[in-house]
C-alpha cells in the first residue's frame, strides 16, 4: 500500500458543466441569505449544527468565520442557471497521512436541491479528492435520522459502514451518526456512473434526466 501522504486541498475554484465552486468568502453572504429565504420553514437546516440564521447580519458573521477555516474547507456553490451562490459544501476531516478525506457540511437551498447542479457540485469535490489529490478513502457521514442524506450517499455510490450511537449533541438532541465510504478501488466505477448521469446525452429538452443515478 502506498503510504505516501496525500496533498492538502487548496482554496481553488472548480468548474463544471452546470455549476461552479468558489472558495467561500464573506462576499457570498448576501447571495446565501437570499437563497435561504426560499426555506421559510427552516427544513434545510434541520440536521445542520447551525442555522437557520435570524437575519442577514448573522449569516454574514457565520460565513465570514466559516470561510477562514482550513478543516473544514468550504466552497460556495454557484449554479449556472441562477448565476447566484445558492449553497455551500466542504472538504473536512482531512488526514493526508492516512489518505482519508470527507465531504460534509452540505447545505443547499431548496431552490437548488435535487438538481443537476447539486449533484455535480458534490461530484466536483469527490473527483478532486480522489483523482487530483489521490486520497484512498472518501467518507460521508450524517445524522442517522437524516433519510435524504442517507439516500444521497447511496446514490453517489458510498457504502454504508455502520452507525455510531450517541456521538454528540446537536441543537439539544442526541445524534447517532451513520458512516459511509468510497475506497480508491471502488472509485472508478462510481465516477463513471456519475459522469454518465451528468452527461448532456442524459438530459431532455426540459432539463430532466432520462435515467436515475444509482451507485455502481
Helix coverage percent: 25-40%
In the sheet with the most strands, the strands line up as 1-2-3-4-5-6-8-7
- Beta-strand segment tally: 8
Rg, Cα atoms, Å: 17 Å
Largest sheet: 8 strands, mixed
Q: Terminal Cα separation, in Å? A: 24 Å
Q: What is the average of the pLDDT values? A: 96
| Percent of sequence in beta strands | 25-35%
How many helices? The count is 5
What spatial form do the alpha-carbon principal axes imply? Answer: globular
SSE-based structural type: alpha+beta
Which stretches are poorly predicted, pLDDT < 50 over at least 5 residues?
none
H and E string: EEHHEEEHEHEEH
Description:
- There is one protein chain.
- The protein has five helices and eight strands, in the order E-E-H-H-E-E-E-H-E-H-E-E-H.
- The protein is of the alpha+beta class and 216 residues long.
- The chain has an eight-stranded mixed sheet, covered by helices on one side.
- Helix 3 runs antiparallel to helix 5 (187-198).
- The longest helix has 17 residues, at 116-132.
- The chain is globular, with a radius of gyration of 17 Å.
Amino acid at each position: 500500500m502506498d503510504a505516501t501522504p496525500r496533498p492538502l486541498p487548496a482554496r481553488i475554484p472548480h468548474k463544471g458543466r452546470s455549476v461552479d465552486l468558489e472558495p467561500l468568502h464573506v462576499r457570498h453572504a448576501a447571495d446565501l441569505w437570499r437563497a435561504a429565504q426560499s426555506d421559510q420553514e427552516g427544513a434545510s437546516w434541520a440536521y445542520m449544527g447551525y442555522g437557520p440564521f435570524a437575519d442577514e447580519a448573522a449569516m454574514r458573521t457565520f460565513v465570514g468565520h466559516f470561510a477562514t477555516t482550513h478543516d473544514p474547507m468550504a466552497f460556495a456553490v454557484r449554479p449556472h442557471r441562477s448565476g447566484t451562490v445558492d449553497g455551500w459544501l466542504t472538504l473536512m476531516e482531512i488526514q493526508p497521512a492516512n489518505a482519508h478525506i470527507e465531504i460534509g457540511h452540505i447545505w443547499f437551498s431548496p431552490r437548488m436541491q435535487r438538481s443537476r447542479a447539486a449533484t455535480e457540485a458534490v461530484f466536483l469535490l469527490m473527483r478532486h479528492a480522489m483523482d487530483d489529490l489521490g486520497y484512498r478513502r472518501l467518507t460521508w457521514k450524517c445524522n442517522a435520522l437524516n433519510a435524504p442524506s442517507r439516500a444521497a450517499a447511496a446514490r453517489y455510490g458510498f457504502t454504508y459502514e455502520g452507525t455510531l450511537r450517541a456521538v454528540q449533541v446537536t441543537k439539544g438532541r442526541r445524534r447517532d451518526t451513520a458512516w459511509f465510504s468510497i475506497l480508491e478501488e471502488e472509485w472508478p466505477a462510481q465516477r463513471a456512473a456519475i459522469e454518465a448521469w451528468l452527461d448532456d446525452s442524459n438530459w431532455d429538452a426540459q432539463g430532466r434526466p432520462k435515467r436515475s443515478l444509482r451507485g455502481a
